[in-house]
Write a structure and sequence with these properties.
This protein is elongated. 43% of the residues are buried. The chain contains 25 helices and 4 strands. Mean pLDDT is 86; it is low at 367-376. It has helices spanning 2-6, 10-22, 29-41, 45-57, 64-76, 80-93, 98-108, 113-124, 131-140, 143-155, 162-174, 178-186, 197-209, 213-222, 232-244, 248-260, 267-279, 283-296, 303-315, 319-331, 338-350, 354-363, 388-404, 431-441, 459-479, and strands at 380-382, 414-417, 447-448, 454-457.
C-alpha cells in the first residue's frame, strides 16, 4: 500500500484495500488514509471519499488526516462543493485542525475564491490560522485584500514567511500593481526574509503585464548581487515584457543569454521569439523558430505560438505560406479562430483564388451581419462591440460581400466604427490598430476621421480593390 501510494498508483491502492476486506483482513485506519490520500492526489475524488466512508462502515474512527485527504481529492478534481460538504460534516463530529481547514480552502480557491475567504473568517473564530491559511487566500483574492491579509498576520500572531509574501506579491502582479509587488520585495530584509527566485519571477511578471521593460532588465542585473540564479521562466517573463513594450531586439539578446546559461527553452520562449520576428516581419526566421527550433527541443506548437508566424507571413505578403500554415494547424487539430479564418480568406483573395474565398465566405457564420456592408446604413460597418479578431473577420466578409454583390459605392467610402478604446486595458484601443493592420496587409489604406473612434476606407481604395478582384475573378473563370 505504501509503495503504491508513493508511486501514485491509486487504482492499486483501491484494489488492495478491497482484497483485504474480502479476505477478512481488517484494514487499519492508516491503510484507509493512505488509500484516500493516493486517490486524492490523482484527482479521483469519488474513490477518496469512498475510502473515507468505508472507514465508518468498518467501525474505525475517521482521523482528520483522512478527512483532509478526501477534501484534497475533491480540490484536485475541482469539486469544491463536495470538499465544502465534507468540511461541515467533519466539523459536526470533531474539532478541526488547520490542516483540515487548509485542505478545504485549497479545494475552493480555483473555482470559488470568495468561499476561500469566508472559510478563513470562519476558521479564525475557532483557532488561529496558519501562515499557509493566509497564503492560500492571498494567492486568489484581490491584491488589496491580499495586502490586508499580510498586515493582519501580526494581529493573528502569525509570522509571515516567504511563501505568504510571494503569494501577496503574485496577487499584486496579477492585478497590475507592480509597484506594490516591488515594494513587498524591498521589505523582505525588514521582515528578516531573504528573496528567492520565485519572488523575482513574481515581480518580473508584474513588470511584464505593465510593459515595464527597463525595470525588468534592471532587476535581472541585480540577481548576481543577491546570489540568485535566473531560471527559464525568469528569462521568458523578461522576454515577454520587452515584447509587450515593442523592444523586440532585446528579446533576441535575452534569448542569447538564456542559451549561454544552457537554460531549457519552453513554449513561452517560442512564443516570445516568434512575436519578436513578427514585429520585424522576419517571416523566414519565424518559420524556422516554429518548425525547426521548437520541434528539435520537443516543444509542441499551439495556436498562440503560430499566430505571430501567420502574421509575419501576412505582413510579408507570403500568402501561399499563410495558407500552408493554416492547413498545418487544421491537420494538427488546432482550432482556427476568427483571426485565422480572416487571414485565410484574405490570403485566398490576395493569392488569386477568389472563388475559394467566396465559397468559404458563404459558409461563414454571419459575424459581419451585426453591422456590416448590407446593414440598414449602407457603407457603415459597426465593429466596436467585437473583439479584434472578430472585427477583422467582419471587415473581410464585408469586402467579399462587395465583390460578390456589386453595388454603387457611397461617396464617402466605407466607414468603420471601432470605438476609441476607452475601456481597453491602459485606455489604449486594440481594435482600430488591428483593423488598420489587417487592411494594410491587403494593400488597403484607411483614413482617420475627426471622430477618433472611426476609420474610413476611401472610395478610391475600395474601387481599386474591387476592380482588382473583378479582374482576378474573370481570369479565374476563363481558366475554368
Amino acid at each position: 500500500m505504501v509503495a503504491c501510494r508513493q508511486g501514485l498508483q491509486w487504482d492499486w491502492c483501491v484494489q488492495l484495500l478491497a482484497e483485504m476486506r474480502t479476505q477478512s483482513l481488517r484494514p487499519s485506519a492508516t491503510a484507509f488514509s493512505m488509500c484516500a490520500s493516493a486517490c486524492g492526489r490523482a484527482a479521483q475524488w469519488r474513490s477518496s471519499v469512498a475510502a473515507l466512508r468505508a472507514m465508518e462502515d468498518d467501525g474505525l474512527a475517521r482521523s482528520l488526516k483522512t478527512w483532509s485527504a478526501a477534501m484534497s481529492g475533491c480540490g484536485e478534481a475541482q469539486e469544491w462543493e463536495a470538499a465544502l460538504a465534507l468540511l461541515w460534516e467533519a466539523d459536526r463530529s470533531m474539532q478541526l485542525d488547520t490542516m483540515a481547514w487548509n485542505a478545504a480552502m485549497a479545494a475552493c480557491r480555483k473555482r470559488a475564491w470568495e468561499v476561500t475567504l469566508a472559510l478563513l473568517s470562519a476558521m479564525a473564530k475557532k483557532l488561529t490560522p496558519s501562515v499557509v491559511s493566509l497564503a492560500l487566500c492571498a494567492e486568489v483574492c484581490h491584491w488589496r485584500q491580499a495586502l490586508a491579509l499580510l498586515e493582519d498576520a501580526g494581529r493573528l500572531a502569525v509570522r509571515p514567511d516567504l511563501v505568504l509574501v510571494n503569494a501577496t506579491a503574485a496577487s499584486a502582479a496579477r492585478g497590475g500593481a507592480w509597484e506594490a509587488a516591488l515594494a513587498l520585495a524591498a521589505q523582505l530584509p525588514a521582515r528578516q526574509l531573504k528573496p528567492d527566485i520565485v519572488m523575482v519571477n513574481t515581480v518580473l511578471a508584474g513588470f511584464s503585464a505593465s510593459s515595464h521593460w527597463a525595470q525588468t532588465l534592471a532587476l535581472l542585473a541585480q540577481l548576481p548581487r543577491q546570489s540568485l540564479r535566473p531560471k527559464s521562466v525568469t528569462f521568458n517573463t523578461a522576454m515577454s515584457a520587452c515584447l509587450r513594450a515593442s523592444q523586440w531586439h532585446l528579446v533576441s539578446e535575452l534569448f542569447e543569454e538564456m542559451q549561454r546559461r544552457q537554460l531549457k527553452a519552453s513554449d513561452s520562449t517560442v512564443n516570445a521569439l516568434c512575436g519578436a520576428f513578427e514585429r520585424r516581419t522576419a517571416w523566414q526566421a519565424a518559420l524556422h523558430c516554429a518548425f525547426g527550433f521548437a520541434p528539435a527541443r520537443g516543444i509542441k506548437l499551439s495556436s498562440l505560438s503560430l499566430a505571430p508566424v501567420v502574421s509575419a507571413c501576412r505582413k510579408a505578403a507570403q500568402w501561399a505560406q499563410v495558407l500552408e500554415l493554416l492547413r498545418h494547424m487544421e491537420a494538427s487539430s488546432l482550432a482556427l479562430d476568427d483571426c485565422f479564418r480572416a487571414a485565410r480568406m484574405a490570403s485566398e483573395m490576395e493569392s488569386g483564388d477568389l472563388p475559394t474565398a467566396l465559397a468559404r465566405h458563404r459558409e461563414q457564420p454571419r459575424v459581419a451581419d451585426r453591422g456590416a456592408w448590407r446593414s440598414r446604413k449602407f457603407g457603415h460597418l459597426d465593429l466596436h462591440q467585437l473583439q479584434p479578431q472578430e472585427a477583422c473577420l467582419a471587415v473581410c466578409c464585408a469586402l467579399l460581400d462587395a465583390v460578390e454583390q456589386p453595388r454603387p459605392l457611397p461617396a464617402a467610402g466605407l466607414t468603420l466604427v471601432t470605438g476609441k478604446g476607452s475601456h481597453s486595458p491602459g485606455g489604449e484601443g486594440l481594435l482600430q490598430p488591428a483593423v488598420q493592420q489587417f487592411l494594410r496587409e491587403m494593400s488597403i489604406e484607411t483614413l482617420k476621421l475627426p471622430n477618433p473612434g472611426r476609420l474610413a476606407i476611401p472610395r478610391r481604395e475600395l474601387e481599386a480593390f474591387l476592380s482588382k478582384k473583378s479582374r482576378e475573378a474573370r481570369r479565374s473563370e476563363r481558366r475554368e
